[in-house]
Amino acid sequence: MTSAAGPRPGGPRLAVVGNPGSRRVRFFLDAVAAAGLPAARVVPWLDVLRGTAGFRPGETVRVDTPGEDPEVDRLLRSADDPTRVEGSRRWYEAFTGALPELAARVAAAGAALVDDPAETAVLFDKRLTHGRLRAAGVPVPDSPTSGPDTPPVRGWAELRALMAGAGLARVFVKPAHGSSASGVLAVETAGAGRVQATTSVERAPDGCLFNSLRVRRYRTEAEVAALVDALAPDRLHVERWIPKAALDGRAADLRVVVVDGRATHAVVRTSRSPMTNLHLGGARGDLSAVRAAIGAAGGRFADALDVCERAAAVFPGTRCVGVDLLPAAGWRRFAVGEVNAFGDLLPGLTGLPGSGAEGRDTYAAQVAALLRTRTAPPPPPSTTGTSAP
What we know:
This protein has helices at residues 23-34, 45-50, 70-77, 88-108, 117-123, 126-135, 156-166, 221-231, 287-296, 301-313, 362-375, and strands at 13-18, 41-44, 59-63, 112-113, 170-175, 185-189, 195-203, 209-218, 236-240, 246-247, 250-259, 262-271, 283-284, 320-327, 334-340. 32% of the residues lie in helices and 23% in strands. It has 11 helices and 15 strands. By secondary structure, the chain is of the alpha+beta class. Residues 1-5 and 376-389 have low confidence and may be disordered.
């Protein structure tokens, strides 16, 4: 809904790199219009990947996910079936390879990017993200693959040896460049060669892997080994499986959106499986019940949000991130599972009380932040007594 007063005089001219017609682009355009700003211009990802994208002087350019478009996915992964799991490494290399050229075109046009493309590249590598969080003192699950210098996991045999060496019987195995739980395995091992993996991956008779909306279990070592061996070429990140806190008998975690360093939105996700993703059968939980559970355990909800803000601070050039917060059993301790560059797709969710985003969805909160930056007063003159060189 547009402002009754019409476009805001002097408002920023916004452009968004995204896929025309996608939900994310539509929500952002709606937020821009509701703020009374001139209509944002959409620069298709297809134009970026084909080298024909153009930008205009003075534009503020927001880069959104290239997801939800089969042709864009085909160009990034060189695969015709978007449900295939394999190909995330090729997708990552094509996506991050396009970002410097995009940034150069934006700068040459006299426009400005909202986010730092180098940080975006880190955020799409779970190993690098985990390493930066750990180095900054942000609590994260133990991981033998954290950081840029750890050796690759080339298959099941190496994963078993890595788990044994780190004393890990239960781990999450994640494609380093995956998203939306694509290819994620929750692996459990026990004595006498007992192995089980819970995942949404479906393995076809020819060995190809596909994303499914149904969580399933593979109960033999041969089956689990085949999955890991097929995923390994795309690079793997391995981390300790932390038993999550429960809410009404269901495992629970939180997605917390942080805008300009402040936690603005939070949604509780619950599930009877290790995967709480809403598209895999997870359900939104009661945030007030989470607050009560944390309080009953002697903690404060504000401290949980502080962990998320500390995680976001590790990426100061990225103005909005979605933090996956893992509450340990008992609701007394929290760890960060992931930090998502495009973690703001939470339709209908309005801001937390006291966050400054009350009554706004995640996109409206980001537009408001852009306006605050543009209208902020200039810094006061230096009082150090030194002169500029």
